[in-house]
Amino acid sequence: MKACESCSRVEIGKNHEDVPFWLRMVGMVLIYIPLLTLPFVILSAYLTYWHLRFVGAKNLKTWKDYIPDRKSYRYTYQTQITMTPTFVGCISKYKIVLVC
Description:
With 100 residues, the protein is mainly alpha-helical. It is 46% helix and 0% strand.
């Protein structure tokens, strides 16, 4: 028995067609806001880490201590989430620039 069979799972995209169009557009915008602020969060974390090191802190956890094992959060081909896009902004091949 797998560990995830005994627990309830999040259902992503199950009612995608029932959500109003304007709400899906807001959701698309909200995806990219954290990506724009992420470099500042990472810089702040490193500055805080080095500040603590310089004032004498010992046994601090590093970035790798907080990242789970790679196999614990990767999708397989069978568990990949897919849905059909319903508006042109979602189909655009140029949005990959924002993701990278």
